[in-house]
């Protein structure tokens, strides 16, 4: 390893928690691994179909058991290959193709969530450096289609969809309680139009690089709000839509020099904690005086905001969140547990809490950290 | 290929979004959870009324349930399954009563009865 970059081993590690040297950039490596984790832990393999009323009629002629078992075998092998860093790009391509084939092979299996998940994996598998941002364009197209369909639907204009869904279908207690305090259909119309505006409004942001941060925040908050409201992940929609946010992030290619005070318990504790699960050696801990801080591009992060960014920069954070949500699929009170996990993740990882904590503890403003080469 | 294939995929989806404006189905046009259809269906095959388990096995859907995209998706599954079975000599009647977003009840019957819009 040199100080020039994250270690790229000669042989790709089998460690599932490592994301370097996989053949894909860090953000896409994390994206496909998050999806593979969710697909495996939700036991998605069990619902892969045999051909049935296929969108491509010749597929119906394939012997059903042969088709299904082949699909399941390829699905499992490619998902595990992703987890263990085996030919990640090709495995992602195959896993995505498997899901897309399953979608077109059976109207019973067909679903927007599986289609989008398959496309994310497939397009990640077609990644090439310097290529077009197809993953971002896919997210834009998805939001455009969803928003346009609602914009042209009278039941969304009137709020009838949301009223029926929330009251008659979900029996959503928060909605019903709030609805009873407001004029008839007021809340329903607001929720419908807020959805339409969000879905269509996010599209131009996706096409403007300087607004990517707002895309990430909007996308994550929108998908999280759906889960918090409904209590479900809409099969794999929540995982794949939130994971798509990773397509808008460029991970640092050099280790981040984190300045910490070795004479203080907090600094040492932070170093020990974050180092213990920094499998890619993304952080270089540099003893110095003053509060914990580091530079990333033109920004300086200190105090609690630094801690928040250290969480966000470590791929294991995303694996943990995805695994926690996916693992409670079949447990009692799964909806409540999912909501708690998402709520806690939002609280810890979205900007406001760290900003408030820093203001409360008044850490001051450190100077930008020296560049890494000064430590050569 | 790594450019052409994604372009073709995106173009197909864009075409599906446009196509969806002219048909009652919502396949591949990104219309998830845009319409709540709740339905109850029953089927009589060669004089035998299907049990819930038999209905599920034949149509891959329950006798009563929900669809989150379009009522036409449920109708497609029932109708296309029966078109295949009819070729094998089955005589089937299906009655499906459904509501879209909780509005007035509608009915679809097989043999063909055009769905109400």
Description of the molecule:
The complex is a heterodimer of chains A (376) and B (117). By secondary structure, chain A is mostly helical. Chain A folds into three domains: 26-125, no CATH class; 134-244, no CATH class; 256-375, no CATH class. In chain A, 58% of the residues lie in helices and 5% in strands. Chain A has helices at residues 26-41, 64-83, 88-105, 112-125, 134-151, 154-157, 160-169, 173-181, 186-206, 212-230, 237-243, 265-276, 303-313, 315-327, 334-349, 351-361; strands at residues 256-260, 283-287, 293-296, 299-302. In chain A, the strands form two sheets. Chain A has a two-stranded parallel ribbon with strand order 1-2. A two-stranded antiparallel ribbon of chain A has the order 3-4. In chain A, helix 1 packs across helix 2 (64-83), helix 7 (160-169) packs across helix 9 (186-206) and helix 9 packs antiparallel against helix 10. The longest helix of chain A has 21 residues, at 186-206. Chain A is globular. The model of chain A is unreliable at 366-376 (pLDDT under 50). Chain B is of the alpha+beta class and 117 residues long. Chain B is built from three helices and five strands. Chain B has helices spanning 4-19, 52-59, 71-87, and strands at 37-45, 48-49, 64-67, 92-100, 106-110. In chain B, strands 1, 2, 3, 4 and 5 form a five-stranded antiparallel β-sheet that branches. The A-B interface holds A 52-53, 55, 106-108, 110-113, 115, 119, 122-123, 126-128, 131-132, 134, 137-138, 141-146, 148-150, 152-153, 155-156, 160-161, 163-165, 168-169, 234, 237 and B 1-3, 5-6, 9-10, 13-14, 16-17, 20-21, 26-36, 38, 60-61, 66, 69, 73, 76-77, 80-81, 84, 100-103.
Compact description:
The complex is a heterodimer of chains A (376) and B (117). By secondary structure, chain A is mainly alpha-helical.
